[in-house]
DNA sequence: TATAAAGTATCCCGTAGCGGTAGGGTCAAC
DNA sequence: GTTGACCCTACCGCTACGGGATACTTTATA
């Protein structure tokens, strides 16, 4: 289906779909010769998922991060979103209670403390965001750490070597041959210990710069290595897809 | 109390209070010599009111408009906000139902149409905004129209004259003496038929540019008259307050 | 089959509602 | 009389699009 149909079905605007395409959050399954975006049912499903996350107040960047995460699982996501929506409803109920009380106070029936007048409003730190991060961000980190712990001495050495070598060349362009060669080694190493599609590989790279626990660990091999790897991994994944 | 206390009590940030001050939404009762904002309990109450409106998704500009409206009434506002919050809860419940269904579908228990997958999400047209506008915006317009209808022939003539004269000078600066003189006439005329504080007067001017029904009517006397009057009325009200 | 109407594309600028920081006063306490 | 907590005013930045301009493509209709 084309943009308009997609927009009408889901209720979002065409412009929004364009935007989601621009930032890489929802990329149409296909693009015609003329440049028309063609969406699939799968795309529609992903959009629904995105909207659930949005309902929880997550920023698009976070949503992208979560959904690109290699260990992202739809079932789990839906269950978590459901739970979180229930929390949101509870919060809304609190606001309603607050307003009911305020009305009563106005009638002179009861009294309220200044604090009470503001129970239920949510500002600053978004609790849903926390929850989502714990559920996915941390999961990848934990898995990663576990794998590192389980490494044999040989693996350890190989792992360190790859990072050291990458750190040495982190000044070059991420598209350069040398960079792509080293990243290729990293990709194949990862696929020895796990299973990473180019897409998942890119997602992992994204976390290198987005989750500070990754960033810190990686940058121990050299300042800026995480970012360099992310860039190089993106390029690599993109080429691998074609 | 000073900003920080205010912020802590209500849960909003200090920066937010600054912002509300900047846009004229919540102006502290008092300002010390040193420029410190001092808020009163009344201010706190207004802030609560603002937050209720915000919870309904109203843009700050609209909130300002509504609360500056001469016929704004706190009791009525609270009742309306309560009702609207209940609608919001119903909408949230729909989203929750949608997600529950989606989970069921994933388990293969039921099937969903594409449309169903998006029931509950709210985009574009904000229904709460509508409701609020009907409740206040329209009220002022209606009152205005009623007054116009009740006018005697003499009043009609005077009314038209004022507008024609204002239209003639609408190119000059709103602060200029001539503009302020004519606006003074308008102010006093209004206070013959009704009761307008400088504050309410400013609110009225605000509606001239913000409600198209006003704008259209006024601009019949000359293109851009509504905006000119709004500006001149703001200046006038500001001076009148001091 | 031509032509109009509808749909789509890519810029690109604009906006709301603050967050955050810099650079600099102020006030109570010790 | 200095320290530390608090306050101020800019000012820049960000997100998630909205909306318009301009140009191409597709579909409907005459």
UniProtKB/TrEMBL annotation, chains A, B:
Coiled-coil intervals, chain numbering: 89-116
Entry superkingdom: Bacteria
Protein name, per record: DNA-binding transcriptional regulator, MerR family
Single GO MF descriptor: DNA binding
Keywords attached to this entry: Activator, Coiled coil, DNA-binding, Transcription, Transcription regulation
Pfam families (UniProt xref): MerR_1, TipAS
InterPro entries reported for this sequence: DNA-bd_dom_put_sf, MerR-type_HTH_dom, MerR_fam, TipA-like_antibiotic-bd, TipAS_dom
Keyword Hydrolase: no
HTH merR-type domain span: 1-69
């Amino acid at each position: 289906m084309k943009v308009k149909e997609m927009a009408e079905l889901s209720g979002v605007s065409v412009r929004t779909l364009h935007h989601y395409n621009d930032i890489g959050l929802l990329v149409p399954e296909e693009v015609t010769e003329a440049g028309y975006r063609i969406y699939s049912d799968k795309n529609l499903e992903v959009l629904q998922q995105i909207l659930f996350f949005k309902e929880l107040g997550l920023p698009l960047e976070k949503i992208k991060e979560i959904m690109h995460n290699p260990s992202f699982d739809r079932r789990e996501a839906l269950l978590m979103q459901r739970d979180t929506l229930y929390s949101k409803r509870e919060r809304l109920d609190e606001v309603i209670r607050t307003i009911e009380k305020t009305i009563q106070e106005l009638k002179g029936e009861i009294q309220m403390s200044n604090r009470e007048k503001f129970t239920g409003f949510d500002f600053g730190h978004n609790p849903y965001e926390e929850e989502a991060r714990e559920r996915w961000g941390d999961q990848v980190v934990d898995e990663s750490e576990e794998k590192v712990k389980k490494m044999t001495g040989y693996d350890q050495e190989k792992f360190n070597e790859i990072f050291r070598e990458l750190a040495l060349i982190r000044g070059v362009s991420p598209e350069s041959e040398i960079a792509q060669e080293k990243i290729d080694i990293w990709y194949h190493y990862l696929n020895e210990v796990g299973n990473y599609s180019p897409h998942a590989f890119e997602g992992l790279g994204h976390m290198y710069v987005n989750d500070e626990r990754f960033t810190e660990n990686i940058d121990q091999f050299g300042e800026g290595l995480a970012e360099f790897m992310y860039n190089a991994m993106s390029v690599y994944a993109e080429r691998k897809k074609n």
